[in-house]
Amino acid sequence: MARAPALASFTAAALLLGAAAFAQPGALASSTPEQRAKLQTELMVEKLGLAPDQIPKVEAINLMYAKKMEPVLKGNEGPLVKLRAAKGIDQEKAADLEKVLSKQQYQQYLAAKEEMRQEVERRIAERRAGGAN
Question: In the chain, what are the domain boundaries?
Answer without folding.
Answer: 3-132
